[in-house]
Each structure stands twice: as structure tokens, then as C-alpha cells.
Structure prediction request, 248 residues.
Amino acid sequence: MSSLDSIAREASRLLRESKYAVVFTGSGISAEAGIPTFRGKDGLWNKYRPEELATPAAFATNPLRVWKWYAWRIGLVLRAQPTIAHRAIAELEEMGIVKAVVTQNVDGLHQRAGSKNVIELHGSIMRARCTECGYKWQIERQQSDEELPLRCPKCNALARPDVVWFGEPLPSDALYAAYREFSKADLVVIVGTSGVVEPAGSMPLITLRNGGKLINVNLERNRYSGIATISYHGKSSEFFKKLMSLMR
Ligand code: APR
Prediction:
């Protein structure tokens, strides 16, 4: 039996025995959909300086540059399809096993895969927010350069992506909802995150402290590799393809 077989078998046992399983995801789950991760090989932060693109100061200094970068990512998201992993997680929710998805991602792929209870800790790249009146609206298509920087359709003030930038607080409703989910969970399936960004990265430790277990699925070793009950260091699509063959 391959190590993937035995890991997936153990993971399916833990999922079936769980009373309240929560899934916690990062950009790695969307990598196979063509959306780049932030760290590690090919990570966005290897090419760009986050201080220039994903901070309030960067936006105040050069809103056009920030909007052009987000418009490029919006294009990637609109062309992307949910992966096998996104769809498997939606199916596990349908089966009554996964109770919630807490994601650091802003791409909306969990919802497009059919997941219903999704908590977006870092907002959504497919939503814009007015910097003056606070009005929010869904972004349905990639903007052309001429349309940037985006302006509020209500008051014409400068708009911004409705995402959390470095140095900004997480939306309080999402933060508290996430803490509640990790506090209730007896099992957390962590998929595609380095876990280095706080407060999100430490949230699975709440479940661990309460006596719960972690399943860690990540291409490379990460902060959970040494504390998870099982870790699969490979592609999330490979893991979930094997897992679902055992869960159905
Ligand atoms: N399957 C599983 N894991 C993968 C895959 C894959 N196909 N491809 C990459 N990974 C792993 C990488 O090994 C890496 O450890 O996904 C992880 C992604 O980690 P990061 O790039 O750090 O992304 P993330 O953890 O989501 O970052 C958290 O940082 O920049 C901020 O707001 C941004 O939400 C983001 C936060």
C-alpha cells in the first residue's frame, strides 16, 4: 500500500469518526486552478513586494498600480475553475461531515465548488468597497486599464478591493465566526497553507488545544507538519482524489 493509500485511509477514518470537522485553506488549494500562491516556489511574493501591493500605504501612494495588480488577479480568478479539492470539500459538507470552511483565500472557489458555509477571513477579490461611503459591490468581470482605479458607483469616490491587507484587522464577523468553528471542531483538515500569516495561521491550534486532531495537506512541510495527526506532503488534488474514492 502506497503512503498516499495509507494516509488517505487514516484520513477517511478520522473524518467518519469526527463529530464536527472544519476545513482550513490557503492559496495552495487554488494553485492547480492556475492561481499563484504567495510563498514557496513561484510564489507571488517572490516576484512582487507585498509592501508595494497589499498594504494601505501602497494603495494610498499608488492606487492605480494596486488596482492593476488586482485586476490581473481578478482575471486569473474568473478564468479559474474549482479544483478536485474544492469539489471534494463541498461534497464532504453535503455528506454532513464538513461543517464549515474557513479560508484565507479571496478567490471564491469554495463557493463556486458548492460549499455553503464558507468564512472568508481575508475578504474577497471579487468585491469592491468605497473608501468614502463604504458601499460594497460584486465585481463581475476584469476591468480594463481605462476603468482603473475603480470608483464608487454611488458617490464616485475612490474604491478599493474588499480584501484584508497587511497591517489591517480581519473583518470581525469572519474572525469571531472562525474562532467559533475551531472551538467546536474535533477535526481540522488544513489544505494548502504555509500557516505563517496571523491570526489565521494559529487558529487550528485552538482545536488541537481542545483535544481535537489535525489533518495537514500541503505540497511541502509547513508549521503543522510536526503537530498534525497525519500530514500528506503532496498535491491537494492527489490527496482528495484518493480520499473521496474511500469516502463514497
Ligand atoms: N497542493 C497543496 N499545497 C500546495 C499546492 C498544491 N497543489 N501548491 C502549493 N501548495 C502549498 C505551498 O507549499 C505553500 O506552503 O500551499 C502553501 C501556500 O502557502 P502561502 O503561499 O504562504 O499562502 P497562504 O498560506 O494562503 O498565505 C496566507 O498570506 O499573503 C497573505 O493574504 C495572503 O491569504 C494569504 C496569506
